[in-house]
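Service request form, structural biology core

Requester: graduate student, group of Dr. S.
Request type: structure prediction, single chain
Budget code: on file
Notes: please return the result as structure tokens.

Sequence provided:
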Amino acid sequence: MDKQKHFSPLWLALSAAVGILIGTFYANHFGGNRLNIINSGTNKLNNLLHIVDDQYVDTVNIYDLVEKAMPQLLSELDPHSVYISAKDKQIAEDDLRGSFSGVGIEFVIRKDTLRVQNVIKNGPSDRAGVLAGDKIIEVDDSAFVGKNLTNEEAMHRLKGPKDTKVKLGIVRRGVKGVRYITVTRGEIPMKSVNAVYMLDEKTGYVRIKNFGENTYPELLIALAQLSQDDFENLVIDLRGNTGGYLGSAVQIANEFLPKNRLIVYTEGRRSARQEYRSDGRGSYQNIPLVVLIDEGSASASEILAGAIQDNDRGTIVGRRSFGKGLVQQPIEFNDGSMIRLTIARYYSPSGRCIQKPYTHGQDKNYEEDLMMRYQHGEFFSQDSIKHTGREYKTTNGRIVYGGGGITPDIFVGEDTTAYTSYYKEATMSGLVLQFCYDYTDDYRQELSAYTDRISLEKYLKRQNIVEKFVAYADRQGLKRRNLLIQRSYNLLQRFLISRLIYNVLDEQPWIEYLNAGDPTILRTLKVFEDGEAFPKKE
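Core staff response, request fulfilled:
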């Protein structure tokens, strides 16, 4: 009999994980406070681990068993309680920190080789002479290529304490042999405000890609920058922003709300209601405001959007947000691993629970919710939005809906008239990104002559870029479909040019290009023009 059949996988997982939680293998703690777990009723599970360790037919690595069991145990609770191993913890936290220590490159892995896509200006690699397009094949005299090379392994090898050195073996186009460059690691800023500019003479625009440690001060700097252009209206773009720190969202909401307005509150079975209110010190309490959201906006994004909407402080434009309103408590173990355990729910000021419905444990419908929304037509028609919660009222008595996520005041659907099966396969397969990387690498010298978005865009439009992609894709196995390509021509060109602008320039020019002609942006400008934005102009 297969030895795996001696024990039910789930039972074994539960046994291992609970056993570890009661202190057999770890001393549990978080934030300097001990997590006390009552042993009563759990000795059977703890004993099972000892029996497996002592009597199982083969040698069992109990530590590895626990590592595999922890995620499975937490997955039985809710969709957002998770286990993070020690090796993954640093990566998970870096995304929200204001900075991390590393070499300062953006890379892709193609054909088992790490290729430098962008070099952060004035960063460690830039100062050492690393160039975009370089291939890193050695790190500290060890081979750095092959099928086992992953993004995680690359980050592990390239990140490190500040002022430590790493020796890179580089292959560069047009240069024979391997070139060796020693890079001294340094602090790499992680900006969460990745675009700030004027949409027109009166309207300032700020895009926030996540809510990290420095998001609030970054926003204040952005608003000061827009003040130099005498902005009268403001757009905060939270589309695709999956969230982050609650505190950052609360600080930003506070900047726009009058004194003593409820921003959000949390409440759970063992967590008493905790309210977050505005202090009235915000500098932008009266500027007309629009917040953009879509199905990718989650967690802290929904807290900010909900606070603005429920207090009738701004107009929400876009599509219904994701619906992630569970509060996680980080609990760390001695070995550096941690869990994020759900302890409460977020509620918007009107009392709406932001979290969309789910059943306990792994919920297939929950995981496929966005696809179900798409198939149901919610991305394209406001009438297709299904509200599962009751009605609530804003400060001024406007009706808003519960049941998960934030429903915008003004809906802007996706335009799918140019979507074809060819376009879908070209984008979903990664062929567009592969082509854009190769094209950037092949024509880097010509492309680098263009230092602003408009001139680069004009140049690319003269290069018949769609035809070049179609030929490339055909060689990769995506057959040419002339009628479908013609129908999706403008979409393909827009996607291709946007990625090339990103590769050659940076995030802000890329965002500016995508926003030009974007229906959501155009509708937003009309909101201001028609005086629909809160607070409304007299």
